[in-house]
């Protein structure tokens, strides 16, 4: 199955997911700050990451010539890996249950979004 992966599609999906995280974090932080939530940027971050998993996997699934679900899941898993590396490099602790939950959410959201995005193909 690894021979079917188009790595450039996964890389574009990860980049699309990162852009989705940034834009959704800006929008959600603005909305939350208008509602009077303290530290709105920090409060919006977890939801933005989940939206980014969906956005990145949708981009990868739409661009993949075959196995869009798989490309979507791999793109979301790559985003989760980058998050884990960034958090670990910053010196923050990485509790195993949180890492496992992040990876599981990435794979499930990536696979489901990839499945929905891959349904556009008509042969």
Helix tally equals: 4
Uncertain residue segments: none
Mean pLDDT: 87
How far apart, in Å, are the first and last alpha carbons? 22 Å
- Tally of extended strands? 0
**Based on CA inertia axes, which overall geometry fits?**
globular
Could you describe the largest sheet, including whether it forms a barrel?
Answer: none
Order of helices and strands: HHHH
If you compute it from the alpha carbons, what radius of gyration comes out, rounded to the nearest whole angstrom?
A: 15 Å
| Assembly category | single chain
The number of domains: 1
Please give the share of residues in helix: over 70%
What class would the helix/strand composition place it in? Answer: mainly alpha
The percentage of residues in β strands lies in under 5%
In summary, what is this structure?
With 123 residues, the protein is mainly alpha-helical. It has helices at residues 7-34, 40-63, 68-89, 96-118.
Q: What can you see in these coordinates?
A:
The longest helix is centred in the first third of the chain and has 28 residues, at 7-34. 38% of the residues are buried. The protein has four helices and no strands. It has one domain (2-118). The mean pLDDT is 87. The chain is an all-alpha fold.
Itemize the secondary structure elements and their pairings:
Blueprint: H1 7-34, H2 40-63, H3 68-89, H4 96-118
Helix pairs in contact: 1-2, 1-3, 2-3, 2-4, 3-4
